[in-house]
Amino acid sequence: MRHNLSEVTDLIRDRRSLSPEKFSERKVHREIVELALTNATWAPTHGMTQPWRFTAFVNEGMQAIGPKLATWYKTAAGEAFSPAKFEKLERRGQRVSALVVIGMVPDAAGRISEQDEMLAVACAVQNMYLTCTAHGIGGFWSTPSMIHLDEVRVFAGLPEDGRVLGFFYMGYPEEGWPKSHRKPLEYVTQWVDQAPV
Fold it and tell me: Whole-prediction pTM value?
């Protein structure tokens, strides 16, 4: 084997989504965010289009985006606006020390479908999650309706054909590492191991 399969399996199964409300005040250093993003760029990509785009806000840089989270929510929510959610996002913007806007720019030549490009970005985000897990950092990929606002796309520096696919929050857990579970494989898998008759 090229790698320790046991360690790889443990890392994958230890990955968690941890909401920013459960982050501690410990700061996430830029070097870790940079490594997570570098590893993200090694995700599979059809035609080597590498459609992912990242706008990273760390530590003091959070002052640029933190206050906007609640404002963007208010704009996108319309009649569904919740004061409690607005306040939650205000607090989140003040508390988090690392946030990456996940973007996608499709293949300019149109060879690769937009769906395939988005799936490549999803694979990139998984690489970010795994890198965070190795560092004992919780990740949280959030896809609220506000990400579809044109002003969010412009703020993230994406071109007109680009799309924001979410916010990725990073933070150390305030308490212990959360536990999780998955359905047994037989609930989600059909095996075909014989040729049709």
Answer: 0.95
Separation of alpha carbons 163 and 41, rounded Å: 17
Long-range CB pairs of 119-124, under 8 A, 24+ apart, other chains included: 120/43, 120/44, 120/45, 120/46, 120/49, 120/50, 120/51, 120/52, 121/43, 121/51, 121/52, 121/165, 122/165, 123/43, 123/44, 124/40, 124/41, 124/43, 124/52
Going along the chain from its start, the domains and CATH numbers come out as: 5-187 (3.40.109.10)
pLDDT per position as a tens digit, 42-95:
999 999 999 999 999 999 999 999 999 999 999 999 999 999 999 999 999 999
